Amino acid sequence: MGRRHPGQVFLPDTFVFPGGRVEPADRALARRLALPPRETERLGYAVQGRPSDTRAAALALAAIRETFEETGFVVGTPATNARAAAPGAWRDFIRAGHHPRLNGLTFFARAITPPGRPRRYDTRFFLTDAAMVTQCVGNLDGELLDIDWFTLDEARQLNLPSITHHVIEDLAKLLARPAKRLTARDVPFYRHRYGRFERTLLSPPD
To answer: Based on the number of CB atoms within 10 Å of its own CB, is 201 exposed (0-12), middle (13-18) or buried (19 or more)?
Structure first.
């Protein structure tokens, strides 16, 4: 996690997970890469428009790219030919000598920013094992300060957005499950309806 600059309009001076919007380069790369079928299916729950493999992969690729840009961590696999065909925003990642690795990502939660905020997002959260981080480089974009690893208890004491508190508590519940139950298909979904916070579970359609 890292702390957003105090002068930023959205969530100033709060600790957040790295992340950002899907860029055209993510969509371009998503045409050549794919998530595991289970994650593609789950990312299609309750979406507007038509779900697709490319749309799901672009969301995951945006998570990997933004993590790299904001923290320097590479979630990828070394590749000797990684310098070839690097679309737009992916050039720095590819020049680090890696390809993004999608097969270790788990779609964990979704949240929509409440109405009335300066900016609103429809956000997907992904999990991966720390062993998936193959390298840390120093070309950070400066968007986050005080970047560090935190235990769950340490994270609970930080200045967090309310939604991040909810995500952390659901993560704690997930990690407390026996290993064989870590593959639950339902996805926590946080939003505000009729002025009240609501947590539901996104599930496969009947």
So the answer is: exposed
